[in-house]
Amino acid sequence: MTQAHSHESELDLLKRQLPIWLASSKELCLEGKVASYIPELSKAPQEALGIHIIDQAGHSVTAGDSGLTFTMQSISKVFTLLLALMDNGEDVVFDKVGMEPTGDNFNSMLKLELVQPGIPFNPLINAGAIAISSLIAGGTSEEKSERTLQFFRKLARNDSLSYDMAVYRSEAESADLNRSMAYFLKDNGVLKGNVNEVLDIYFRHCSISVTCADLARMALVLAYNGTDPLTGVNLIPRRYVQIAKTFMVTCGMYNASGEFAIEVGLPAKSGVAGGILTMVPGRYGIGVIGPSLNPKGNSIAGVHVLETLSREMDWSLF
Ligand code: DON
């Protein structure tokens, strides 16, 4: 924060500045593209941009189209990783997925065969997240999905969080690449159980519908190392949050994670519906939506507004 701002609280400053910063990022929406490989996602408004920031006392600042609902898509992978870690422990999870960035696209299967052992490089690429879906505890795939949804609801403090069934069906009908990866993982012994059931768990958690406020509340729990600061209740062991946040820094924005670490410097995870979940550790949870994507699959205006915020508020961890 600059000297000129020092007598004003940070939230007041954000309230005043966010709409201005958002307006200048919004222009970029027209330069990106809304995802269409899942046909239902193409209906999202290209020009939308919204943000919600919440602090440990529950005070929030919101701007733009923050009321828009959208599906979590890959953002959900952070939380299924956390659930799989809580269900199985680190040894079991990291027997099935690695800890390294790929430098490839999120849906690439290139390195699955290229590098031994043939496990997905990390839990945030599609192949890794599908392997993680197979590790969620429960007697049936319905029970596994239900446990996942309940976990997300608890973190978001929102009992009405649910699936966007149109997006779920649209993905299930168009997921040939993910299906081929899942069969490959099964053949490699990485994925246990029924491939279609595991994919159903994956498609469901990707299609959980949220607003920026839901993402911000989920991020707030991570920003406070697994304890919900609004209740003081520990929801996730600190060590697992540390693992998840590290993956967010190294792989959360796919093959743009290095650039994002330099320009923004915060743990973050994006999804192809245009959401970004990020946080200022020990301070804020942040949710962003901007369905128009850059060529790497991240929200074009969402990344831009986070760059502005980080620079103006001096939020980079590095
Ligand atoms: O599996 C898929 O392709 C989607 N359900 C999720 C991909 C995604 O969000 C990647 N994001 N940038």
TrEMBL record:
One GO biological-process annotation of the entry reads: L-glutamine catabolic process
Identify the InterPro entries for this entry: Beta-lactam/transpept-like, Glutaminase
Per UniProt, the keywords (alphabetical) are: Acetylation, Hydrolase
Q: Is Acetylation one of the keywords?
A: yes
Q: What is its EC number?
A: 3.5.1.2
Q: Which residues are recorded as binding substrate?
A: S74, N126, E171, N178, Y202, Y254, V272
What enzyme class is recorded for this protein?
hydrolase
One Pfam entry name: Glutaminase
Where does the source fall among the domains of life?
Bacteria
Q: Which reaction does it catalyse?
A: L-glutamine + H2O = L-glutamate + NH4(+)
> What GO molecular function terms would the record report?
glutaminase activity
The reply on keyword Hydrolase is yes
- Assembly and partners? Homotetramer.
Which protein family is it in? Belongs to the glutaminase family.
Protein name from the UniProt record: Glutaminase
User: In which organism is this protein found?
Assistant: Paenibacillus paeoniae
Gene for this chain: glsA
